[in-house]
Amino acid sequence: MKQTLIIIFTAVLLVACGNSDTEETLKKRATELCQYIPDHKLLDGSKDYMTADFHAVLDTMFNHLPEHEAMDHEWLYYFVTGNGGTIADYEVTKVELADETHAVATIKVRQKWEDGSFDETSDIEEHQLSMEKVDGVWLMADFDGHKADCIRHIDINRKEQALRETISDYLVQEIGEHYLKGERCIPTLLITASEEEGDNQARVWGDYWVFWYNTSGDTLKTVSGGNHSGCMTIKQENGKLTVTDFEQTVDGAGNAASAQRIFGKHYDVFKNMHMNTDVREAARKEQLQWYGKTASALTTIRTTAGMP
Which of the two residues, 296 and 138, has the higher pLDDT score? Predict the structure, then answer.
């Protein structure tokens, strides 16, 4: 009997010693992982502290989408901090094991200033950091459910990008052909509104501009261009998006009346967008910068201002 008890005690001791995932060690690891929570950017070295799939979606959001798209979702840039110049101070209060390879850490976050003093005007926030054990190492697998948010946004963005590419291709091929040509035809798109009509068709209203450019070093010089505002009907046929109709505003005296008819309830938004030169030039510059990132021949883009 005594020998049996010794054997049982030894077995229990071995199991206890072999299990390194105590709450204390998990809290310590969670505290390490907190240092790689994104703060306005995906931090250097974070790949080694995140699961491959979580890092992949964050990398796509931060580094492979147009900047203005990501900035529409401020939670991405301010995971736990705002824009007030404070620094996040993390306290892991507990870690709960879901199974041998999954755990959730509860984190309290306070904001502090660079001198180390706490910001007494901000509340203490509570967050959930999901952890997954991969090849014996605990990694960050999610934070406040933002992985699903990222996946949804990436899917929406890809659909929007496909729509924009379809519109751009149409403007280049069907409208750009009638202008004095340069080396590159790059439209500027200011989408006013879009509405889906069934599963395979959409109408997209926009303030569309077509520009031809010549390149001089890293500068795009405007050769020709013009406005082609209106509504495009786009259908998906055999897995491909196609512009099947484009109703444009007319030039001259009938312009305002045709715009009111075509844009309907979206007219006021269109008018404000169309009449604001600063907004148009900002959009033009932003879209050209994105073009520069995706065009292998150009790494930096500056443009000559305005129309030729």
Answer: 138
CA 252 to chain centre: 40
Structure tokens given for 92:
């892991």
CATH number at residue 101: 3.10.450
**Helix 267-275 and helix 277-294, axial crossing angle in degrees, nearest 10:** 80
Is 154 in contact with 61 (CB distance < 8 Å)?
yes
DSSP state of 211: E
Interior angle at CA 66, CA 61 and CA 67, nearest 5: 80
Is 173 a member of any domain? yes
Q: Which of 87, 119, 144 is the last residue of a domain?
A: 144
Q: DSSP letters along 113-146, please?
A: -TTS-B-TTSPPEEEEEEEEEETTEEEEEEETTH
Q: Could you say which of 119, 144, 169 is where a domain stops? A: 144
Distances from the Cα of 238 to the Cα of 165, 167, 173, 292, 301, angstroms: 17, 18, 21, 31, 36
Total domains present in the chain: 2
Please report whether residue 13 resides in a domain: no
Structure tokens at 47: 């790949």
Q: Give residue 182's domain range.
A: 156-303
Q: Is residue 34 part of a domain?
A: yes
> CB within 8 A of 214, min separation 6: which ones?
182, 183, 184, 220, 221, 223
- Longest Cα–Cα distance in the chain: 106
- The pLDDT of residue 140 is 97
% of the chain residues with pLDDT over 90:
56
Torsion of CA 168, 170, 172, 177, to 10 degrees: -160
